[in-house]
Design brief:
This protein is an alpha+beta fold and 214 residues long. Helix content is 28%, strand content 36%. The protein contains six helices and eleven strands.
Length: 214
């Protein structure tokens, strides 16, 4: 089964509504951006601000990748990443897509590890033969107004017909942000995983939607 089909299944199973705009547009339109580190990248076209209920965050495409806020908009996903030399369709059919979901915490303040467990259990029910393995955590360095994070990651092997998917779960006070890499094969996943790590490391939590000027 194509990577895109698996990708859309995971979107529909864990997604919440998010919005995105180019960071330069957010600043120009008068939005209040609090930390200094996002402002330093305001003119970088590879960076984008994702915002919604209780979250406003910044992510930057790794070198050689593009940030696309339109290709998956009809699926409720406004931040997709793929290699510059590929079109979205080419990346979906024969390479790698990365994308972002933001999940609001429920009662009991769901943690990143709890979100990881829930995701694994749900996926296992849908695809009983897949193998799930833990990867080394990804370190996000502390910023001027943000704490360092050790981000847990799990990989779904041979998910839905042979593809490989890894998910990083980034916890903040009111949300868990899931950054996903979805590849059509193990060699492609292995080749593109360093770009996934770069994407996760670029994460900056700016504030809630009210703080971001909504």
């Amino acid at each position: 089964m194509a990577a895109g089909v698996r990708l859309y299944w995971r979107m529909q199973s864990i997604r919440v509504a998010i919005s995105i705009c180019a960071l330069s547009f957010c600043v120009a339109s008068g939005g209040q951006i609090l930390p200094s580190s996002p402002l330093a990248r305001a003119n970088d076209p590879s960076c984008g601000m994702i915002y919604g209920q209780d979250h406003a965050l910044l992510l930057c495409a790794p070198p050689g990748w593009v940030l696309d806020n339109k290709a998956l908009a009809d699926k409720g996903i406004y931040a997709a990443f793929y290699r510059k030399e590929l079109s979205f369709d080419e990346a979906e059919k024969r390479s790698t897509l990365m994308y972002v979901n933001v999940q609001l915490k429920g009662k009991g303040q769901q943690t990143a590890l709890e979100a990881m467990k829930t995701d694994a259990e749900r996926t296992k029910r849908e695809s009983p033969k897949l193998v799930i393995q833990r990867e080394a955590p990804i370190a996000i360095l502390a910023g001027k107004n943000t704490k360092a994070k050790q981000v847990p990651v799990q990989t779904f092997l041979n998910d839905f017909g042979g593809g490989y998917e890894s998910v990083a779960y980034i916890e903040d006070e009111k949300t868990v942000t899931m950054i996903v890499i979805s590849s059509v094969s193990k060699p492609i996943w292995h080749n593109d995983y360093p770009a996934f790590v770069r994407l996760v490391k670029s994460y900056v939590f700016v504030g809630d939607d009210a703080q971001a000027g909504k």
